[in-house]
Fold this sequence. Notes:
The chain contains 5 helices and 13 strands. By secondary structure, it is an alpha+beta fold. It has 2 domains: 3-58; 65-266, Glucose Permease (Domain IIA) (Distorted Sandwich). Strands 2, 3, 5, 6, 7, 8, 10, 11 and 13 form a 9-stranded antiparallel sheet that branches. Strands 1-12 form a two-stranded parallel ribbon. Strand 6 (183-189) and strand 7 form a beta hairpin. Helix 1 packs antiparallel against helix 3. It is globular, with a radius of gyration of 19 Å.
Amino acid sequence: MSVRKVAMILYRCCWLAFVALVLVDVLAESLVPFGLVFVPAAAAILIGLLVGRSRADRAADRPAVEVGPPVTGRWIALNSPADKAPSHGTHGYGQTYAIDIVAEPEEGDRPPFRPLWPVARPNRDFPAFGAPLVAVADATVVHASDGRRDHLSRNSGPALAYLMVVEASVRDMAGPRQVFGNHIVLDLGDGTYAAYAHLRRGSLQVKAGDTVRAGQLLAHCGNSGNSTEPHVHFQLMDHPDLDAARGIPFTWRGIGVPANGEAFTAEGAVGSG
């Protein structure tokens, strides 16, 4: 087990200990010294900072790897590394150069964010839901899971607040599988791995150990894990274990790295392998 993985497990344990001490302090007043309650939280923050700095220093050593796009059709980029890195505000789970993309076949097809109502929308309202995801290169499947449910959208003010304050924190303490939801990890060779997150439940077309060809159908886009709406989260990293991974920059062949809000069209047919 790597030092990075041990550190991430300890990080989550510290947050769980903090929550447990807060509950004990609330339910059994004065049982726990007030100052002691915050020791695990401080330790978790320190571990997170140290691990994040280590990953940031290492990530800068790798040149961008060119791969094919993971989708076909017209999409829009969000949380793009073309605008900032780390693109998702963290180096954790290999997300330094991760990107989110949402499908919008025609301008205005995607439901907009609403301040209050509707609080949540069904996944079928979003064009990305069920869209095919394809292999970005010839690869071997390292991990493939699709047993977690697709939840309703979080693209309103109240739902987003719930996601940020409650759901995201709980998922982070539970580990990367709850954050990424249903996901696939591919071994592209040369120490490079590709991760696809938030897959649709029951949509897997491959399993761990399979060899896939570039453009082959892997699964379908869903809304599992820490997700505001059906979308594709894609990243390259240097390790198949999300706890131990550091991000690697990518560029999509014929597209580059689309910036936040930039629409792009990925050409090509989906192959079944």
